Amino acid sequence: MSKISQLIDHTLLAPTATATQIETLVQEAVEHEFKTVCVNPAWVGLASRAAQGTPVGICTVVGFPLGASTTAVKVFETTDAIANGADEVDMVINIGWALAGQWDDVEAEIRAVVEAARGKALVKVILETCLLDVEQTEEASRCSVAAGADFVKTSTGFSKHGATVEAVRIMRETVGPGLGVKASGGVRTAEDLARMVEAGATRIGASAGASILADSAV
């Protein structure tokens, strides 16, 4: 099993995704031994059935991509996704709260999702770092640690830009060795992946997983 492949959440979050494309995504993940497939909530059940009997995990997104739904909705999305077969949940924080310095609210919401997933699924917290400054990225990372999350994650891939080496480094330095750091958005080559891992990433969200593996073998 490739160490590189086990870093990758093989991702298809486009609103245009079809059942056939989701099934192909799972087949590719099984073939290349990716850690998970990451799909929108509507496809969790299908992906879970397609991956049954394989080591491939099922990852989905909550409050995606804006982070602006209510805490109750995010909690429901989490429990619903787990019931449908999700092993990992990537939740988007309320970015407006972060920008306004409402850190108690940010932390409480993360905690609510973590509690809904406890013992059933990992929780990754999407900070959308392209919309935050350094201090806000640090504080959002601290909130994630305090709330009991398993990972912090850079980006949805649907905002200004995706992961940067600097954001990954800041997140890693803030959370320490105890949490995972997921770099997502714009990681398309083996060189991109290597730079993110060097900065502290332990998981990569990418739609280009197969080409990354091919690139790494060159």
Automatic annotation (TrEMBL):
The keyword Transport does not apply. One of its GO terms (molecular function) is deoxyribose-phosphate aldolase activity. GO terms for cellular component: cytoplasm. This is Deoxyribose-phosphate aldolase. It comes from Arthrobacter yangruifuii. Belongs to the DeoC/FbaB aldolase family. DeoC type 1 subfamily. Its main location: cytoplasm. It holds the Pfam family DeoC. InterPro entries: Aldolase_TIM, DeoC, DeoC/FbaB/LacD_aldolase, DeoC_typeI. The gene is deoC. Gene3D superfamilies: Aldolase class I. GO terms for biological process: 2-deoxyribose 1-phosphate catabolic process; carbohydrate catabolic process; deoxyribonucleotide catabolic process. SMART domains: DeoC. The keyword Transcription does not apply.
